[in-house]
């Protein structure tokens, strides 16, 4: 019996060991599978990262590389060349009035063409415009480059559309394409214009856009969509210019010299005090040996010459009085010098804070008084006149107001001029009330303290 029990126990132990081994093997297999899955996940993540890096590199290259318009239309023109005979045939059938189905087919093809061109053109064009804004040397140069790019893109799209349709007549779908280009141009420039605080840059951009519009108006092509957006951008720039002028004039109006500006600067005070101290010390050094010599010479004769002693005392008192007078004169001279320094500093501060901004504002008014958008010329061609009329539709209200009673643009310029002259008068009053000379005290320019305003 014991032998059978031992056998059973041994077999049970063997089975338990086998089960444990199997469990260990299964665990090892599961661990291996998990490791393999982790490796696969890591590989997938690495592949995704590589793909993202490649996409980023491609995007950066696309942003850095300039846009070649020929690449956007040459290949498309080659691909669309087989459809040109079909379009010509359909257009001919439509012009003859054979059936309305031809007209519907032609219109559907034009709409499909327009959607395809906008989908292919706008993304790279927007990247190109952003690249021009970021990599240009200055904002006016970037605006010139963006305007030239938009005009070139409109011309290329016109040529491509006319080649596809086989006709040079104006078409609604071509106008939609040009509106997309004009809107992309406006969206690229408008935020930069609104963020620009430089009056000179804004004036340069406005002049550039005026020249671009003049070129477009003189051309035979119908560019009403681009003209309208350029006109809208010029109006935004003009509003920004007026805002900057108002800010400058308001700063001039509210300007008040601070106590530090009314007094001489600390460095000049320290220098003047050091000079005065050195002068007084040198004078004291010169007086002490002379006084000691006089006392030494008078000492032996004091017991015998009382009269001389009184004379010497009187002389010493006179010398002391003279020294006190000299010291008072030196102090007065130092005070006058300090007042002169303070006056020069205040005058320079008033002139620097008031006159340059006013002159800048006056210069800006002259720039704004240039010929505005919307004025038609007698020698303008019919197509250019139509484009100008479409571009200046937003100025109708201003023209009506001008006809009713004065041009609001001229009134605004007059207000700016009046504010500038008022600030100049205020500066002159401040200088004259402080009794300061308008010119430095030089031999060539004598000091003039009485200023009439």
UniProtKB/TrEMBL annotation:
Pfam families: COG3_C
InterPro entries: COG3_C
Compositionally biased intervals (Low complexity): 290-301
Every Conserved oligomeric Golgi complex subunit 3 C-terminal domain range: 70-369
Region (Disordered): 1-23, 281-318
Family annotation (PANTHER family): LIMPET, ISOFORM K, PROTEIN C20ORF116-RELATED
Protein name (database record): Conserved oligomeric Golgi complex subunit 3 C-terminal domain-containing protein
Lineage summary: Eukaryota, Sar, Alveolata, Apicomplexa, Conoidasida
